[in-house]
Amino acid sequence: MKREYISLFEKAAPRMSDEELLNAVLSSRKGSITMKNNTKNTENKSKKFFSKAVVIPLAAALALGATAVGAVAVYNRSVADEYNNVLAPGASIFEQEYKNADGEAATQPVNIELYEQMNIAIDKTFKCDGCSVEIPGAVTDGKDMIVLYNVIFDKDPTNGELAKAFMGYTPVTEGVGYGCGRFDEGMGFSKRDGKTVLSGFFELSKLEKVTADTIKVKLESLWGDEDLWNDGALPLDIDLEIPLTSDITRFNKTVEIPSKPHIDLSAWGEWNMTDVEITPLSVTFNMSFDETSGTMPAPVVHKDASPDFPMIVTFKDGTTLDISDHAGMTHGIHSDTRTTMIQRPFNFPINVDDVQSVQIASAVINVDGTAQTVEIPEINDHYAVHGGEK
Asked: Which of 135, 119, 117 is nearest to 127 (CA)?
């Protein structure tokens, strides 16, 4: 799988080495980059570090005769089926183990009603050179957004076995981030009326900064195997607008923690939990530095170290979701406010009202704000060295 990731992404980001690119993808669905402040203010550049979306500048408008003409309504469909097709268990690429109330490995149930409730209807089809692109809808928690798409090819693009592929796109709305989306077994090819259909999704982030009532995105190309398309890209030229509403954060829950439990994250420092935000798409742990523990780690430590510590969601029915794997994690230190945050996305939406507690390291936080400390295995530190670990 690592070789497949390299093969796809080296076409999208030729100036990055295979090693750098592989690490960016494998470290996270939202891989590691450094967020810089205003370049005119060099003093502030080192104050913040975050591991956020893999921002890969895709080839600017590959205008090889491809044009997107007026959008038309997509065919009649089931919203739940669309989301279930690419978001349901089996379609994930991150290690998130779900267990039943007896502690046995199980398949996480699909919440069809939640898909329907969260759906932002877009229902547009764009005719391009060689294919049609359907954008049926999206889901968002006000921070991140998952946008579904179907590509219907005019002619079968196969040259032997079909390749995995992913959408090349850039947000036009200022301040919005983006990532690669998934191009895993769960996002695949099917047939409709004899034509090949590619179903997948792409992701947007930092939506909390958007003040407009729509988000504009340019869909530039579909990336895949170079044997299928010229230079590995099928050109697109689509201007997409995604509507936002005032209630896109209605499913989110912020849990304040009066006791501020202490956690030790080894190389990442010692912190006091202040609050936890749980949304259908992620959980975010907010912490302040424990001033009694010594010197606060430098922001670069969050980039280079990956301590092993548990992160577990427990639901009211006794089932659990282990999200401890670092893939997809967002994390960083605010040097000025002496705070940190760790955000972990879910493979697919959860019902926030079903959550009983969330655990990070030795702290278990209940949704009523109470907390307790539990015993955990010793935390091991891992440091990145030229793409590997020591």
From this structure: 135
* Listed residue (387, 94, 56) closest to 223, CA to CA: 56
Q: Using CA atoms, how far apart are residues 37 and 44, in angstroms rounded to an integer?
A: 6
- d(C-alpha 90, C-alpha 25), whole Å: 19
Q: Show the low-confidence residues of the chain (pLDDT under 70).
A: 1-77, 88-93, 157-164, 180-188, 224-233, 385-390
* Close Cβ partners of 317 (under 8 Å, ≥ 6 residues apart): 101, 354
H or E element that contains 19:
helix 18-27
This prediction has a pTM of 0.77
Give me the amino acid identity at 183.
Answer: F
Neighbours of 223 (CB within 10 A): 26
CA pair distance 349, 312, nearest whole angstrom: 15
Phi-psi region of 192 (alpha: psi -120 to 50; beta: other; left: phi over 0): beta
| CA–CA dist 151, 130 (Å, integer) | 10
Closest by CA position to 181, among listed 90, 95, 54: 54
Report the pLDDT value the prediction gives residue 196, as an integer from 0 to 100: 85
pLDDT the model gives residue 209: 87
| Lookup result for tokens 């510590």 | 309
Whole-number Å distance between alpha carbons of 273 and 208: 22
Question: For the chain, how many residues are written?
Answer: 390
Predicted confidence (pLDDT) per residue in 219-230, tens digit: 998 876 555 555
For the chain, the farthest-separated pair of C-alpha atoms sits apart, in whole angstroms, at 67
**Per-residue confidence (pLDDT) for residue 39, from 0 to 100:** 37
